[in-house]
Amino acid sequence: MACRPPGSGSYTVVIIPLRTSLYSLDALRFYLWVKRLKDLEQEKDALCSGLEILEKARLWYLQRLEENRARQENIETKSKLSSCQEGAAEAQSCLLRSRIQRVNGSLGSVMSEPYVTSCSNPSLPDAVADSDLRWHNTVLTQEVSDKNRQISKLEWEKDALLEQLDQLQAH
Question: In 4-123, where does DSSP find H-type helix?
Answer without folding.
Answer: 25-77, 83-112
